[in-house]
Input
Amino acid sequence: MTALLDFYSARLLVTFVSLVLLFILRYRTYRRLSQFRGPLSTGWLELWHIRAILSMRSHEWYREATDKYGSVTRVGPNDLITNSPDLLAHMSAVRSPYTRAAWYNRATRVEPGKDHLFSLLDEDTHTKRRQKMATAYSGKENTSLEPSIDLRVQQLIQLIRSKYLSSSNSKTPSKPMDLARKIQYFTLDVISYIGFGQAFGDLEADDDVHEYIAASEAGLNLMVYVCGLGLTPLIQWPPIARLLGPSEKDKSGHGKMMRTARRLINDRIDKLETSKEKGNDMTASFLHRGLTKDEIFTEAYLQILAGSDTTATAIRCLMLHIVSNPRVYNMLQAEIDNAFNDGLVQADGIISEAVASTLPYLQAVIREGLRIHPPITDVVPKVVPKGGDSLIVDGVLTHFPEGTNIGYDVFGLARRRDLFGEDVDVFRPERWISKELSDGDSERMEVMRRTTEMIFGHGKYQCLGKPIAWMEMHKVIFELLRYFDWSIAKPATPWRSINCIGIFLQQELWMVVTERNVELLLG
Output
């Protein structure tokens, strides 16, 4: 009893000592990165960074921070973000000793304990897995890649024609179409065919057939809180994961989607193994390169998310900026009409990737669209290697202590005034037209190109699906403006868009679409 009374009497002393020790630990953490400026409290607490993620506008928070505090900004006790192209390229170089940060990449696992290319932290395993998968994405073993995309573009055009055309007659009611949803149907059908050898059929049904979109929206909204509050280790702890995580027995949501994906993959693998056919899709390529069934499932499921949501965002953003800029709209449509008139594309065919890549204004519009609104803004932090690292950033030799997380401010990178000019917030494709630059600016143009390419990652972390995304953007933008005229149905509120740890969820991009008489226009 006396001991309890003594302890009770000493409670103030115990509390005081505990607070002193806590302050000392926090101060040591603060001092490690004290050379880097950042918003108030970021050297002591995670609160600012948590709020940025939970705001679902993290790309804007990061951009505002680096604009105010510099190319390398502190956003947490052990976290920095950067919009320096030199530092970003250095961290992701093929032989870079930097590694991925667990708090972010591990949160993207499909199943606890099972990694895909994006969640892998071990660099050797990541490199070997990437080498096995690269050929499938390049199209060398996937000869049906471009024809399969052409077919989905044709289905998208047919869907618009059959159900969503408005009349140019002012007395006839318009029929607004949610382009955001139709574009996601398109990208889902593309990636499911490429990955599974069988399209989901969303365009044909004009519906979210497997309820993927609903599952994705629910899952990404949840991931904001899991990642933002640092709950990944808890949520992915097997007992908790079995209790709260998705199950393939679920009747809806990610569990149902996982069950559908596994069935499609198993059916495809069984067919390949029993028929002994070589196959020309990604599943066949992965199988031939030695990936196991579980690895193929995990990678294919990642494709659905990374390959459909991000490309859909890119196309939506392009269409919104094109349609809302009459000068750009008219110039691009004129280039498209001239390409048709010059015989570069057939009347009943889809433009080829080879031809699309030669159209200068189309290229400029797409590059500017990716710059003005990058389709993915994941922070993908890298960890400073053992012993720390030093690099010249904006002309100043900067030291980064070992173990520091350095994230990617892609929105800020794409709006750097020293690279893209003072009008970085303006959608102006002409900045990409070489003939408007003097000879001395050719190097600057190359820097601009390399910088925007970082939207797809860089070096050992560059997105394998980049060629597929470019092909989809080329074809869809060209054909939608070739056959139809577009206007925004609700200019004051053109869409709903939120950022879920780097992936955008966009809805209600309502457009009014009318048919163009191409033959009459071209005479």
